[in-house]
Amino acid sequence: MRSLRWKGAAHITGGGILGNLPRCLPDGLGAVLDKKRWKVPPIFGEIQARGRVSDDEMHGTFNMGLGMILVVDTKDVDSGSLVVGEVVEQKGPERVVLR
Fold first, then answer.
1. Torsions phi, psi of 90, nearest 5?
2. How far is CA 54 from CA 30, 35, 45, 61, 73, in A?
3. Section 38-67 average pLDDT
4. Can you give the pLDDT at residue 26?
5. Quick one: pLDDT band at residue 2, thresholds 50, 70, 90?
6. How many CB atoms lie within 10 A of CB 87?
7. Are 63 and 13 in contact (CB under 8 A)?
8. Are 10 and 63 in contact (CB under 8 A)?
9. I need a surface site. Which of 24, 30, 62, 93 has the fewest CB within 10 A?
10. Is 26 helix (H, G, I), strand (E, B) or coil?
């Protein structure tokens, strides 16, 4: 097993993706995540439908299937990695943008 040099880690617990990922990013940086890059467990669809919960609220409260997000340099990404987005210069008030 090879070691991985990571630059940040976000344990996605209470506060969801939107609340936890920014905590591991330096000021001035944000993240753009592509929602099509990971499979969301069906239970989250049930919660959203039955509770009439918005997409933003779902990602701001739940992990949506991502229990941990590691921030790594692109050169350290291998074929076994699940890349869900990228770190970018923050533009505007949002630290995490979901596409």
1. -70, 130
2. 22, 15, 11, 11, 32
3. 94
4. 93
5. low
6. 19
7. yes
8. no
9. 93
10. coil
In this predicted structure, what is the pLDDT of residue 80? 85
Count the neighbouring beta carbons within 10 Å of the beta carbon of residue 64. 21
Tokens for 35, please give them. Answer: 């929602």
CA dist., res. 74 & res. 33, Å (int): 15
Q: What is the pTM of this model?
A: 0.85
| 48 burial level (CB within 10 Å; 0-12, 13-18, 19+) | middle
Within 8 A by CB and 6+ apart from 63, the residues are 12, 13, 16, 17
**7-28 b/e (C-beta count within 10 Å ≥ 16 → b):** ebebebeebbbbbbbbebbeee
> pLDDT at position 30, please?
96
CA–CA distances in Å: residue 15 to residues 1, 2, 24, 74, 78: 32, 31, 14, 27, 29
